[in-house]
């Protein structure tokens, strides 16, 4: 399984779920003949604390690749970067305890600039720091090339349109595609 643990960006708020990037990633998996099932575990409005509370309920199946896309709502709400860091760290620890062979990808998120330069820098630093310390794959900013582009975002200026989700899927696939190939190989005992 390729599990996307995320927020409204993953859930596909405002677009048909079949047009959200996890569903588009499933089509890329199918086209490449990679026998993994992409699971969209995105919840709109959820903070990293909510993702941490919910994550244990998602640990039933073998997770070949876990993509952690959380923290954006923490940043929008001005929640403590230390708390966000601790929550994401705990998600990674839970995933590792569940199955040490799971490949974990952490999606870089950004805080809005109106939170001030110190908050923005502290928030931005969470993701590369955790990726380095926990030895997980760091995915560049999920909305790279999409955020701030009016034609690729809904009227709220935050959530991608269908065209935006196609570009998010391409961003995700560059990182996740090769990892999915490796995760789909039979495990040796």
Short description:
The chain is α/β, with parallel strands linked by helices and 189 residues long. It is built from seven helices and five strands.
Describe the structure.
The chain has 189 residues and is an alpha/beta fold. The chain has one domain: SGNH hydrolase (Rossmann fold), CATH 3.40.50.1110. It has seven helices and five strands, in the order E-H-H-E-H-E-H-H-E-H-E-H. Strands 2-1-3-4-5 form a five-stranded parallel beta sheet, sandwiched between helices. It starts with a strand and ends in a 5-residue tail after the last helix. The relative contact order is 0.17.
Key structural traits:
single chain; 189 residues; alpha/beta; Rossmann fold; 7 helices
Distance between the termini: 19 Å
Order of helices and strands: EHHEHEHHEHEH
Report the CATH topology name: Rossmann fold
Low-pLDDT runs: none
What profile does the largest beta sheet have? 5 strands, parallel
SS content category: alpha/beta
**Going across the major beta sheet, what is the strand order?**
2-1-3-4-5
At CATH level 2, the architecture is 3-Layer(aba) Sandwich
| Whole-number total of structural domains | 1
